[in-house]
Amino acid sequence: MHIRGDHAELVVGGRLDVRSAADARTVLHSAVDGGVGDLVLDLSELDSWDATGLGVIMGVHRRAGRCGRRLVLREVPPQMQRLLVATRLHRILAIEGGIGVESLPRV
């Protein structure tokens, strides 16, 4: 897993899973705490996430809200969009451009 960027926009790549969750949480919380306005997470380079990785995203979402910021997901890969829809988290998280639920392939 790798994360690069600043306190306003970060690109997350690789796998966001149980092995990388602690490091990702540290970097993302630091970005939330050190900036103002929206924090954009570009997920275009993210290969996969598991329940722990999704938990990290939700934790960052809550922390951003407490800091008066908003977490915005950008370029969410289709398989991860399906997971957000299945868990109904697409209704809670800010997703740039939204998710076209009708256009997602059925699994």
Automatic annotation (TrEMBL):
InterPro entries: Anti-sigma_ant, MlaB-like_STAS, STAS_dom, STAS_dom_sf. Signal peptide: none annotated. It comes from the Bacteria. Residues 1-107 form the STAS domain. Gene3D superfamilies: STAS domain. SUPFAM superfamilies: SpoIIaa-like. Coiled coil: none annotated. Belongs to the anti-sigma-factor antagonist family. This is Anti-sigma factor antagonist. The lineage of its organism: Bacteria, Bacillati, Actinomycetota, Actinomycetes, Kitasatosporales.
